[in-house]
DNA sequence: CTTTAAATATACAAACTTGTCTATTTAATA
DNA sequence: TATTAAATAGACAAGTTTGTATATTTAAAG
């Protein structure tokens, strides 16, 4: 799959948008900063994206795909079905360490634009629901001790991961995510 | 305690700022919208608050106090130490129903301004740490079955509440918070 | 080599941003 | 009632915002 001329520009735009929207925030990132740091012309941006909101949507969609692909890869490497669930916590923890405790791209986008734009909200809901379904499948195949029901364990892991990321982003450390892993280990 | 002349203005400003910052977001709320909806003069705002950031800080501080006072009241009404912990979930759930699933003021402020302003981050950390300490005390007095350690149970409840609020704010329903309550009930 | 499409730089519009300043009116106090 | 402090309306500065338009250059394909 050879990269078209336009694809290079789109990639540069999305890479820059991702970095800026995630690190400093969507609302405080101007189009002008995006085109400057992506080193492309403004007309090019508006040729590929109708509006700033459409750029946000494209960024969320690409994040959804990439994030999920990498997660799937990590989980597939693990054979034991209970270990697979624990890998979720490792994955989240590692990513927080990597990105300097910037939190979750979807939660952040929801807090910045989810309230005012329904297309953005729908995209965020889609990503989160997809992830929850993924957890549910892992739980169903985990053979856990049924101290909690499958649904309860799924809800628990889902909320612990989001809560753990939020805590990491506020306190700038991943201790809670580590703690969350230990807790689930005990309950499996 | 009689209200001074200036106190009325400050209250109007903070009430409006709270409503707008929480509902639509800090960065998309302009000073002009605040003064217009608060029905006060711009010079009055800048007489009481040095900058927009200082208004945000004042809003966060007042939110911290009020939120905590009301929570303490709710918890004090309950006698049973285990029930006190469950009240936390009821409190969070009720508030999400009331405010239309707008999420958490502190998480939202963190996602909007925590990355760029250290005073804001410090205020948010203070509020969250205060709450976590409060949970720790309730856990210590709960006489729970010690399936988890005190610290683990504290971390768990803390993360479940934040994760549950985030889920409520994304999916626009409080089912997860209800589920979280059931889970903790089983583990107490 | 010529055509065609894409990317470029740059100027521009119209609105909005935070914050300052002046001049006037209101209201509490001495 | 006279003084004093506070609140008011509104203009203004300097910069930023998103998005459009024009004219030019680049580069790929026939």
Molecular structure report:
The N and C termini of chain A lie far apart (43 Å). In chain A, helix 1 (5-23) packs across helix 2 (31-38) and helix 4 packs across helix 5. Chain A has helices at 5-23, 31-38, 42-48, 52-76, 81-98, 105-114, 118-140, 150-171, 175-187. Chain A has 188 residues and is an all-alpha fold. The interface between A and B is large, with 46 and 46 residues. Chain A binds a DNA duplex (30 and 30 nucleotides) through residues 5-6, 9, 30-32, 40-44, 46-47, 51-52.
What is the element layout, followed by pairings?
The structure is a homodimer of 188-residue chains.
Chain A: H1 5-23, H2 31-38, H3 42-48, H4 52-76, H5 81-98, H6 105-114, H7 118-140, H8 150-171, H9 175-187
The structure holds a DNA duplex (30 and 30 nucleotides).
Quick description:
The structure is a homodimer of 188-residue chains. Chain A has nine helices and no strands.
| Broad structural category of chain A | mainly alpha
N-to-C SSE string of chain A, H for helix and E for strand: HHHHHHHHH
**What would you call the shape of chain A?**
elongated
Tell me how many strands of chain A there are.
0
Largest interface: A-B, 46 and 46 residues
Portion in helices of chain A: over 70%
Strand proportion of chain A? under 5%
Largest sheet of chain A: none
Cα distance spanning the termini of chain A: 43 Å
Please work out how many helical segments of chain A DSSP would assign.
9
Gyration radius of chain A, rounded: 18 Å
- The low-confidence runs of chain A, each spanning 5 or more residues with pLDDT under 50, are none
Oligomeric state? homodimer
Average predicted local confidence, pLDDT of chain A:
96
